[in-house]
Amino acid sequence: MTPRKLMLMAVALLAVPIAIASIVLAVDVLRVPGELQQRDTRFESAPQRQAGLWGKVDFLRGWPALRLLGVHDDLDYRRAAGLYLRATCARSPARWTTRAFPSSRRCEPGRSTR
């Protein structure tokens, strides 16, 4: 084998794992916005029952999709809002309503706000 053929084989062998890693990363990046929307919907339906909802959004270690999309601050806000709503509900469940999440009406499911 000539040195040129050896070099081409080495490049080809390196290109396959890089391509596979790129595909997995692309799938993770495309999946994150839908996952956030689904979890937002779950939170709005029952905020009291959703502890730890925004803990692990992507499936790759090191959160590369979250870094590429820049949603760490969005997740921090959602975690803080969830903690605030759970604490507010625990303190006064009978009077609690939210304007930030209009579809979640009260702490206790099934009750109307009027």
Describe the overall structure.
By secondary structure, this protein is mostly helical. The protein has one domain. The protein is about 60% helix and about 0% strand. It has three helices and no strands.
Characteristic key phrases:
3 helices; 61% helix; rod-shaped; disordered C terminus
Helix content: 55-70%
Structural classification: mainly alpha
Task: Give the helices and strands as they follow along the chain.
Answer: HHH
Shape: rod-shaped
Report how far apart the termini are: 83 Å
Number of domains: 1
Estimate the mean pLDDT confidence.
79
Low-confidence stretches: 108-114
Question: Can you summarize the main beta sheet?
Answer: none
Our count of helices gives 3
How many beta-strand elements? 0
Give the amount of beta strand, in percent. Answer: under 5%
- Please give the radius of gyration in angstroms: 22 Å
Can you summarize this structure?
61% of the residues lie in helices and 0% in strands. The chain is an all-alpha fold and 114 residues long.
